[in-house]
Design a protein that fits this description.
This protein has 258 residues and is α/β, with parallel strands linked by helices. It is globular.
Length: 258
Amino acid sequence: MTGITTQDEDAGRPYDQFILFGDSITEMSHDQSLGFAFGAGLQHAYSRRLDVVNRGFGGYTTAHAIKIFHKIFPSPQTASVRLMTIFFGANDACVPTHTQHVPLETYKENLQKLIQHPATKAQNPRIIIITPPPINEYQLEAFDIAKDTPHPSRTAHTTKIYAEAAKEVGAALNVPVADIWSSFMSTVGWQEGQPLIGSRDAPDNEQFSGLFTDGLHLTADGYRIVYEEVLKTIRANWADQDPEVLPMVFPAWGEAPR
């Protein structure tokens, strides 16, 4: 009787994974009804190359993430994680009186703990921190009232601070950051020193509003910015993981053995 080959051992093993870990913005990122969403876009781009796995949890903060990470992140014996996005901060950045608020320094510590978690180190994936996107206070006011949420739940200025904190963690740990906060703002022509678009310090901006469904969650145009920024970050740091050059796990039909 011959021994089991590596090929036999790998039978039924899933493709290497690209895990999207985050809050509701990640959870909703496969919603095809929007017309475009970044999770579905990545799934299409990496089709036959990587399994894109959505691990988004609506309402979660980094405090929640720390508690569940060991349960949602696979061991090397189960699956190989090639890439991972960590996309938290939109809820952490709630005002201090809000139940979802996570203090700024704790937010930074939690991001670091996720990156340096034993489960992460066991896989050593290519990690991308995604900054929280900006918010639109004009839209969010109506959303908060409808949800009977203490008003305001978030401010544009505080969210900016949390986005900067995410970048600080990335720089300190040498982890690439997809700075979608800046990408959103540059899309509408905002420049540092100007009144902050999305805040009550600036007039309501129609183009900016078009990036959000409710001032927090994203439209197709908003998700496209996230998608493009994540791919730009991958190409800048790991060119061989660009879906346009990454080989298929199994060859095209014309090249496949018969």
